[in-house]
Design brief:
alpha+beta; three-stranded antiparallel sheet; 6 strands; 53% helix; 18% strand
Length: 210
C-alpha cells in the first residue's frame, strides 16, 4: 500500500469516528427536547436546532465549568504577580541605598591644649604637636601652590590673619639678578619669595613712601 492509499484509509477512519460521535449525541438531545415543554426559554430551541443540524448541543454546565477553570487559573497568576510586586517593592530601597553615593567624612579640628591640635576624620582622631603641625603646614602649602583656583589676587574682605612684627629674614642674590627673600612667619614658618629687580625697586618705593 502506497502513501496515497494510507492517507485515504486514515481519512475514511476519521469520517467514521465523526459520524459515530454525532449519532451518540443525537439520542440524548432528543430525550432532553421531549422532556422540556415548548414554552420554555429559547435555549432549548437552540439546542434542538443544533442537534438537528448535527452539532453537539451547548450545555450551560460546560460554560460554568469553563468559567470556574478560568477563575482557578487566574488566581495563581494574580498571586504570583502580587508576590513579584511585593518583592520588587522590598528590594527597591536596598538597591537605592546600594547606589547612593557614600557620605564624605567631615573634618573636625580641636585644640585641647596650647601646644596640641586634634584632627578627627570619620571617627578617627589624630593628635599633632607643634612640630607635626608645622610639617603639615609646609606640606599643605607646597601642595596648594600647584592647585587651582589660585588664591584671590586681592585681600579678601573679613580675612583673619596673624601678622609677625619685625620678622627674621634672609636675602640671597640669584644668578639672573633676582633676589630671594625668605621671611619667618610665626604661623607659616619660613616663607620664601623671589623678586625680579624691577619689583625690588617697586617694593622699596612702597616701603619708603609716606
Amino acid at each position: 500500500m502506497n502513501l496515497q492509499d494510507q492517507i485515504g484509509v486514515l481519512e475514511a477512519g476519521v469520517d467514521q469516528l465523526l459520524q459515530a460521535a454525532a449519532a451518540a449525541h443525537a439520542p440524548r438531545a432528543d430525550e432532553r427536547a421531549a422532556a422540556v415543554p415548548h414554552q420554555e426559554s429559547p435555549v432549548a430551541s437552540s439546542e434542538a436546532e443544533q442537534t438537528a443540524a448535527g452539532q453537539p448541543p451547548t450545555v450551560a454546565v460546560d460554560t460554568a465549568a469553563e468559567a470556574a477553570d478560568a477563575a482557578a487559573t487566574a488566581e495563581p497568576v494574580e498571586a504570583a504577580n502580587a508576590t513579584v510586586i511585593d518583592t520588587a517593592e522590598a528590594i527597591e530601597p536596598a538597591v537605592e541605598a546600594a547606589h547612593a553615593a557614600p557620605a564624605q567624612p567631615e573634618l573636625h579640628v580641636a585644640r585641647p591644649s596650647q601646644n596640641e591640635i586634634t584632627l578627627t576624620i570619620g571617627g578617627q582622631t589624630v593628635t599633632l604637636n607643634a612640630l607635626q603641625v608645622g610639617q603639615m603646614i609646609e606640606e599643605l602649602s607646597n601642595a596648594r601652590a600647584s592647585m587651582q583656583p589660585e588664591p584671590p589676587p586681592g585681600i579678601p574682605q573679613g580675612w583673619r590673619f596673624a601678622s609677625t612684627k619685625n620678622p627674621m629674614m634672609a636675602v640671597q642674590k640669584q644668578s639672573n639678578g633676582d633676589r630671594l627673600l625668605v621671611l619667618r612667619h610665626t604661623g607659616h614658618g619660613w616663607v620664601p619669595f623671589t623678586f625680579s629687580p624691577d619689583i625690588v625697586v617697586q617694593m622699596y618705593m612702597l616701603l619708603t613712601q609716606r
